[in-house]
Design goal:
With about 350 residues, this protein is α+β, with helices and mostly antiparallel strands. About 25% of the residues lie in helices and about 25% in strands. It has ten helices and 17 strands. Strands 12, 13, 14, 15, 16 and 17 form a six-stranded antiparallel beta sheet that branches. The longest helix is centred in the middle third of the chain and has 14 residues. The chain binds flavin-adenine dinucleotide (FAD).
């Protein structure tokens, strides 16, 4: 337990903000994206810059406090908060700057994805996120980490799932994207789930690198404005994002169009920034969210049958889904052991 005098002395020399239990801002400061996560840190600190991050870490180390680092707060299991210890919340360290010549973007440690998306798209570039970072290490040192500089630390911070340090600045490689992406979902009756799953697998296996697909068995949500009778009932759906030219997307998605008229459909060319924001309302802060995931090398018929069976059992009013995402292609070009230990 931290005594008031110690915390006050720390707060007086700290550039950012320090929030303690019992203060008016405490409940808002301890909230994270997933409403299921309800932790009560002993202290929430919001640094204004690198010097504050170093000071916060030193304070925590000297008192052997558990530290959780918070960026956007979206960690589904709640890794960016803790009970009793110190949360270092980077939300005051914002901003993204793009260098169009080098095709890179530099983001502050607490920058949100929308800041990076908007800065990159303003000059026809895009970032699928993540290559280099500047780090305050767990002992308070400041280093640059990349594939070439401090590579062990770079590997650890990307994939080990533990607090190796705090990234106060990220540098990302950008790619050209000056045209609309083709994005959206087609919904079909649940009775066609097996056929749709087969088509999803074929398209994922034979489609171009530009195409990402997801296959879903879930309830139709009332907010989705489906034709009457569908709301709240199980459906099968395929979502796509094609980042090639719209005419290439039309060609690559022809088999999906030929599958038959959907119950509802929203696949069309749209600006990348529009596609990026479409999930914002459904994924709003504070919902209670539970999720489990695994890697699959194939999509057996039996698994789809099980998903359909369980979808019929989702209670009315709840929002549950089975989602299968294609993960190969360009994603698979990143070596298996680049961000985690290779599977045996
Ligand atoms: C609705 C939703 C949609 C998502 N969609 C995608 C998606 O399309 N693609 C995808 O790849 N992921 C997706 N994710 C997963 C998301 O990218 C991860 O949960 C990510 O870690 C969230 O980052 P954050 O900064 O918001 O999270 P936080 O909860 O703040 O942090 C997550 C973890 O990273 C640590 N951390 C955060 N910032 C720093 C920092 N600057 N330095 C060191 N450690 C830090 C935290 O301590 C914590 O362990 C999604 C998550 C949600 C909730």
């Amino acid at each position: 337990m931290l005594d008031t005098r110690t915390v006050r002395a720390f707060a007086d020399g700290f550039g950012g903000e320090v929030i303690r239990p019992g203060e008016p801002k405490y409940d808002a400061a301890r909230a994270v994206w997933n409403g299921l996560v309800d932790r009560r840190p002993g202290l929430v600190v919001l640094p204004d810059g690198t010097a504050d991050v170093v000071a916060a870490l030193r304070f925590a180390r000297e008192r052997d406090l558990l530290v959780a680092v918070r960026g956007g707060g979206h960690s589904i299991p709640g890794f960016s908060t803790c009970d009793d210890g110190m949360v270092i919340d980077l939300s005051r360290m914002r901003g993204a700057t793009v260098d169009p010549e080098r095709r890179t973007a530099v983001c502050a440690g607490g920058a949100l994805l929308s800041e990076l998306d908007e800065a990159a798209q303003s000059v026809g570039l895009v970032c699928p996120v993540g290559v280099v970072s500047h780090l305050v290490t767990a002992d308070g040192g400041i280093v640059r980490v990349s594939a070439d500089e401090n590579p062990d630390l770079f590997w650890g911070v990307r994939g080990a799932g533990a607090n190796f340090g705090i990234a106060v600045s990220f540098e990302y490689a950008l790619h050209a994207l000056g045209h609309p992406v083709t994005h959206g979902t087609v919904v079909h009756p649940i009775e066609r789930a097996g056929e749709l799953a087969q088509l999803f697998v074929q398209m994922a296996e034979t489609g171009p690198d530009e195409l990402w697909l997801g296959f879903y068995v879930r309830l139709a949500l009332p907010v989705e404005n489906f034709p009457s009778g569908i709301g709240g009932r199980p459906i099968a759906a395929v979502s796509v994002l094609h980042c090639g030219q719209p005419r290439e997307a039309e060609r690559d998605l022809a088999r999906l169009s030929a599958f038959g008229p959907p119950v509802a459909g929203s696949i069309e060319p749209k600006p990348h920034l529009t596609a990026q924001r479409l999930g914002d309302v459904a994924a709003a802060w504070g919902h209670r969210f539970y999720m489990k995931s695994a890697f699959l090398h194939s999509l057996p018929e039996e698994l789809v049958d099980q998903a359909v069976r369980h979808a019929h059992g989702i209670p009315q009013g709840a929002e549950g889904e089975f989602g299968f995402w294609s993960g190969g292609r360009a994603i698979a070009q990143v070596p298996e052991d680049a961000t985690r230990r290779a599977l045996p």
